[in-house]
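Entry 12.
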Amino acid sequence: MRFIVSTSTLLKHLQTVNGASSSSTVLPILENFLFEIKDGNLTISATDLQTSMTTSLAVESKEEGKVAVPSRILLDTLKTLPDQPITFHIDDNTFAIEISAGDGKYKLSGENGEDFPKIPVVDNASSVNLPASVLSEAITKTIFAVSNDELRPAMTGVYCQLSPQNITFVATDAHKLVRYRRNDSKADKASAFILPKKALTLLKAALPNNDVNVSVDYNATSAFFKFENINLICRLIDERYPDYEAVIPANNSNKLVLDRALFLNTLRRVVIFANKTTHQVRLKISGSELNISSEDLDFANEAHERLSCQYDGEDLEIGFNARFLIEMLNNLSGEEVTLELSTPNRAGLLIPQTNDENEDVLMLVMPVMLNNSY
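Predicted 3D structure (tokens):
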């Protein structure tokens, strides 16, 4: 089998799917890309058995066949080559690969493509179409709040709720929660599933900047994303998601409106002086004044800053992990945010002040117990 392709084009496609491959010692073939040539098209596949990605590109070839190519050595080689045509020669019996590029020749050992795991297909699937921009924004707004605790597998992914009214994406790690809802995207029927973090990270990186349509097919076990020449299929997390609506406080009589960038930069400074384990900051709100402070008793460090704000409610003191607030503010848009509070031991809600009627963003952060040493 023989084909010719541009180094830059091939490298771009390989980098798109490379994240789906696995350095598995149990199945070494997962460290390979699957190359399939048919009708002048090269289809490249990578998988770790839970998540699979394929992409395709036109190449110069009159033959058909498949071979498993070692991913790391191929990527490292292509990164050092200038943009030029390269020729792949594959021995159909031994699967030995010879790459010719300019004055150079490189040989490596491939494997039988028939031994590569079959890329799954989604049977009996329901489907929904989403603009790439909506999907990208949903992933960006939620993925940072996904839990890494493997003892609670349901929370290691993003929960997707589809309905005829809207589509909702939810992520939580029990300390913070994000609910991102789109009123301009809908499904024909109600359903819900949990998408794993790795698949969403790969999807976010692969989504184009132009607003193409993404076809999402799903059944009880898998989800399939298709756009342009890229397919991504992942196994869903088979767990029951927590009742997130139950933890969102409904009556928050204290509302604090702040300049988002000013609040964010203040927290970044103040947290430097906080305890390195708890990252605790204290918010003391009185009238139209917000005092933000932190302290690290072990090193006698402390910081105090004062901000002007719009506040409607009773005077209040509450503690938060500043890292969580910073993460949330970084992933919110708009010039102003509202922090809704009720009591010092109940969760606070961060809500952006935007004019987009199609976007509904709510971020919840749990308070931390204040130490009263200052």
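Annotation: The first helix runs from residue 7 to 17. Residues 22 and 48 are 5 Å apart (CA to CA).
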